[in-house]
C-alpha cells in the first residue's frame, strides 16, 4: 500500500512580489524539515514548493500517518542519590520517575552506567511516534513563524475580536493527506479544508474543491487558470517573451533582466505576453532613461534591436487573456506614454543648463555630516585625481612611452591633467539634475550624456559616465585613463574619508559599500596594470581632507590592511591558494604585476627545490628579524667556512641572472633560476654558525643572508609557501 502525499496551502491576499519566491521556498522547506524531524516522512519523500501572487503551498510525498515509536534513554541521577543502602528508591528518584510517567516499581528496570566518576541511573522507555495531525500542526506553526517576512501586517479575524500577524491577510487553509482533510489543523484563525480559489477573473470554477494532494496543481491550472509553480510560471513567461520578440521580427529581443523576470512572475497567475509600442519621437531621449522607467515603474520588457539599441516596441506580461487584446495593449500604451513624456521633459530641461553651471549647487547637497557637502567632496576628488594623474603619467612615460602620444597636437600630460580635472569637477553635477532626481540609478550615465551635449571631449564624457564603475562584481571597468583616474579618486576619497572618521564596515553592515569600493580599486589597479604605489596614493588622498581626519596615518594603515584582505579574497576567487596570494601580497609587488607574480610563484612551487628553499627563506627571515638592521654587503675575505664560500660563489653566479630576468619582467624565470641555490643553502645551514661570537664574522654572515633574502623575495615572500 502506497503512503499518501501531503498538501498544505495558505490562500492569502496579494503577496509582496519581490520576496514571493523566497517566501514560497521557505514555507515549503521548513514544513518538510519539521515533518522529517518528527519522523513523519519517508526516505524517499520529496518536496515541491508552490508560490503564486495569492498562495503559498507545499506538496510532500510519502508522509506517514504516524511516526514510528522511538526508544528513549533518560539520565536520572547518581545511584548514591537515587537509592538508599537497601537499594530502595529515594524520594527524589520517585519524584523524578513520576514526572516521567513511571511508577516506583520501575526502579528494578533502571540501568546503572559508570561515567568515570560515579554510577548513574538511566531510565529506558518507548516514546509513542507523533500522530500526523499533531505533527502537521507543529510543522505548520513553525513554517509560518519562520517565514522571512519583510514587514508584518496585523489584521482582525472574522470574529471581530481576535487579530493575528502575517505578511498579508490569509483567507483559506488547505491540508490534505491523500484525499483526507486534516480537519483539526488550523492556522491564522483558519480551519483546514479542501477549498481554494483560482484566478480572480478567468477561473472556470470558483471556489475549487481540491480532490486530493496530487491533483492540486492540475486542478488549479485547468479549473482555476493558475500556474501554481513559480519556476514553471517563470519559464512560461521567458518562453512567451522570446516567442513574442520573434513575431515582431527584425532580430529584436527582449531585454534580459533576471530580477525583473522574477518580479513579474510574482505578479501574475497565468501570464500572457503582448506586444505594445510608443511613439518613435521618444527615442531621442537616452535609451537608459526609457528602459529604466519602463522596467522600474511599469514592469515592461523593452525590445532591443540586433545592435542593442532600444526600439519603440515593448512587451507587457498581462495577467488576463481577453479575446480582444487591444484593450490590454492600448491601456498599457496609454499608461507608459506620460512616463516617457516625463523623461523627455526632464532631458530637455536639463540640457538647457551646462554641467559647469551646476557646480555651485553641489555645495548645497550634504554628503556626510562629518565630511561636508558634495561640493567639498568634489574638491577632494579633484586633488586626489590630480595626484594620481601625475603619478600615472610619470610611470607610463618611464615604462611605456609609446602609450602616451599626443591628442590633437596637445602635450599628452597637459591633456591628461586637464581632462582629469574637468571630469573630476563635473562628475557629480548630474546629482542636481531633474532626471537623476527622478531616477537616481542614472547618476553618471546622464552626466555622460550632458557632458557630450555641452561639447566636452569624448574622454571627459566617458570619465563622468564611468567614474562609478565597477558598480558590482563582474561590471566593466572605465574605458580610458581619464575615467580610470577619476574612478580611483572617487573610490579612494570614500574609503580614506570613511576610515578616517571611523565608519568601518562590520560583519553584516557596510552602508557606504566600502568593500565594493575596495574591490573596485583592486580590479582597476590589477586589470588595467596600473604602475601606481597605493600607499603613496592613500597619503595624497588623506592630505586632501586637511584637518578633517584626526589620525590619517593610523586610519590609512587600517585601510591598507583592509584592501589587502580584500585583495587576498579576490585572488582566491581567481583560483590562487591562500599561500600563493599571501606570498605575492607580502612582497609588495606592483599591482599591475600581481598576475605575473602569481603565475611565477605557482610555477616555482611545483619545483622539487621549492619546499626546501621556502623553509630556508623562512629561517633566514627569522634570523634577520632578531638581528635587527643588517648591512647586506659581504666581505669575501671573511668567508672562512667552505659552506659559506660555496654559497657566496653560487650567489655570484645565480643572483645576477635572476635579477636580469626580473628586470625583463620574466618573474617565472627569475624564481626558477634561484632554485639552483637549494644545495648550497642547505649545506650552509648544516655547517655554518651564523651568530658567531666574533662580531665582524657574525655581521658578515648576516650580510650574506640579507643579500640572499633580498634576491629571493623580489617576486614574492617565499617563506609564505613554507
From TrEMBL:
Quaternary structure (record): Tetramer of two alpha and two beta subunits.
Enzyme class label: ligase
Subcellular location: Cytoplasm
The enzyme's E.C. designation: 6.1.1.14
Any one GO molecular-function label of the UniProt entry: arginine-tRNA ligase activity
UniProt superkingdom: Bacteria
Keyword presence, Transport: no
Name of the protein: Glycine--tRNA ligase beta subunit
PANTHER family attached to this UniProt entry: GLYCINE--TRNA LIGASE, CHLOROPLASTIC_MITOCHONDRIAL 2 (PTHR30075:SF2), GLYCYL-TRNA SYNTHETASE (PTHR30075)
Residues in DALR anticodon binding domain copies: 615-712
UniProt record similarity statement: Belongs to the class-II aminoacyl-tRNA synthetase family.
Keywords: Aminoacyl-tRNA synthetase, ATP-binding, Cytoplasm, Ligase, Nucleotide-binding, Protein biosynthesis
GO cellular component: cytosol
One GO biological process term: glycyl-tRNA aminoacylation
